[in-house]
Each structure stands twice: as C-alpha cells, then as structure tokens.
Write a structure and sequence with these properties.
Number of strands: 9
Order of helices and strands: EHEEEHEEEHHEE
Radius of gyration: 17 Å
CATH architecture of the domain at 13-31 and 73-176: 3-Layer(bba) Sandwich
Structural class: alpha+beta
Strand content: 35-45%
Distance between the termini: 12 Å
CATH topology of the domain at 13-31 and 73-176: Pyruvoyl-Dependent Histidine Decarboxylase, Chain B
C-alpha cells in the first residue's frame, strides 16, 4: 500500500464543555472529524497532493477510519482567555517537490496573528529547503513577498480557529487540522 496522500482537506472547530476531553470531542465534531481514529503525523505536504474542500474531503471518510492528521489544538478553562490553533501551508511551484505544513497553538493571539505565524513557519521551512534565504527578522508580509518573488513557492496560507475561554469557566478547545487522504 502506498502511504503517500493524494488528497487532503483542512478543517477546524471549537468545543465547550465542563470537561476538557469532552470539549476536545466537541471541537472534533464541529470540525466534522470526530468519528475518525486520528493519527498525528508530522508536517510534509506530499508531492502532487490535491487540496479538497472540507465538504469533498468529509464525503470520502468512513466512520471508524484511521486518518492521518496534522493537528494543532489548545484548551483553556480560564474565562475570556484567547486561544488559537492554526495550520500553515507552503506549497512549491514544482508539484513534484514536497511542501510544508506547520502546527501552531497559542494563548493570547488573535486568529490573524496565529495564522500569520503558522504560515510564516511553513514558508520558512519550505524556503530553506529550496535555498531561498530570507532575513528572519523581517515581518511576515515582507518575508511573504520575498518567497513569492522567488517564483519557487506557489502558495502560502493558513487555516486558523480561535475562541475566547467560556465566560463561566467551562473548558474551551479549538482545533485546526489537515486530514491526509490515502487511496481516495
């Protein structure tokens, strides 16, 4: 069996409950992936991999299926505490090469800040693999311009979920995931 994913999709969700594990389960339900046996893997975007919409990806899944996931998640039971989970993506122009996905989860960051960080991290990993030298002290939008101007990186983006901790102190969990689809 070839374990190189041919397709993937991105999803995200939020869950709130009295118990931390239940809030995680509800976040997975919100993301549409609670019925899967998720196996966390590291963060390579496979060559020739096609990105599907969440709706297209979920249709290809079976309850109980083992699914490989790049996942960021974080929980809090502190009222109003800001949390964020993000997956960053950087794909090379040459589809025969691999790209990168990054996972980032944080307290106190907006979805924009967390998403920019995850996207920057994925682009930095891909850029260094491709030999693109960028000053790490530049702001993300400046680095993004250098990466895209190189002509070697076709796309960077992020999928981010943020939330504020429940005002009554219930557990709040956010997840962001890339689900890799094998043989689909």
């Amino acid at each position: 069996m070839d374990f190189v994913a041919k397709r993937m999709f991105f999803t995200k969700g939020v869950g709130v409950h009295d118990h931390r594990l239940s809030s995680f389960e509800l976040a997975l339900r919100d993301a549409g992936i609670a019925s899967l046996n998720l196996v966390r893997v590291s963060s390579i975007f496979p060559p020739h991999c096609k990105i599907l919409t969440k709706a297209e990806g979920v249709k290809r899944l079976k309850h109980g299926q083992i699914a490989f996931a790049i996942m960021a998640d974080i929980s809090t039971n502190e009222p109003n505490r800001l949390i964020a989970a993000s997956i960053g993506v950087a794909r090379p122009r040459d589809a025969t090469l691999y790209g990168y996905l990054s996972e980032h989860h944080s307290y106190g960051e907006t979805a924009k800040k967390a998403g920019d960080f995850a996207e920057d991290l994925a682009a930095e990993m891909l850029g260094s693999t491709l030999g693109i030298e960028v000053d790490p002290n530049l702001a993300w939008h400046e680095k993004e311009n250098v990466y895209k101007a190189s002509g070697m990186i076709i796309e960077t983006k992020n999928f981010t979920q943020s939330a504020e901790g429940n005002k009554d102190g219930k557990w709040t969990t956010v997840v962001a995931c890339a689900i890799l689809l094998i043989d689909s």
